[in-house]
């Protein structure tokens, strides 16, 4: 059985975010995401895979639930700006 710390580290590695600095909040609550403001993301499967992993992580990390819900809204038609929000 995989523990949540290891799972989170693998998720950060998968998303190439392991070297990033931690933030006090996962997303600025005033950020407005839109379908019309950005170029369509080319690798939709990678976006969906990342969202799925983040949804699983919310079971033990309720502090990221708002962020995951915000980017999950664009699950069917992600844009580059939504992927960068990760």
Could you explain the architecture of this structure?
The protein contains 4 helices and no strands. The chain is mainly alpha-helical. The radius of gyration is 13 Å and the shape is globular. The termini are far apart.
Summary tags:
mainly alpha
Oligomer: single chain
Series of secondary-structure elements, N-terminal to C-terminal:
HHHH
Tertiary shape: globular
Largest sheet: none
Distance between the termini: 26 Å
How many structural units, i.e. domains?
A: 1
Unreliably modeled segments: none
Total of DSSP H or I helical runs spanning 4+ residues: 4
Summarize the structure.
This protein has helices at residues 4-14, 44-57, 65-72, 80-84. It has 86 residues and is an all-alpha fold.
């Amino acid at each position: 059985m995989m523990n949540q710390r290891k799972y989170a580290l693998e998720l950060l590695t998968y998303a190439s975010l392991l070297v990033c600095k931690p933030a006090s909040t996962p997303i600025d609550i005033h950020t407005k995401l839109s379908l019309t403001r950005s170029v369509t993301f080319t690798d939709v499967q990678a976006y969906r895979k990342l969202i799925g992993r983040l949804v699983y992580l919310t079971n033990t990390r309720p502090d990221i639930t708002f962020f995951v819900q915000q980017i999950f809204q664009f699950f069917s038609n992600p844009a580059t700006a939504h992927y960068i929000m990760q």
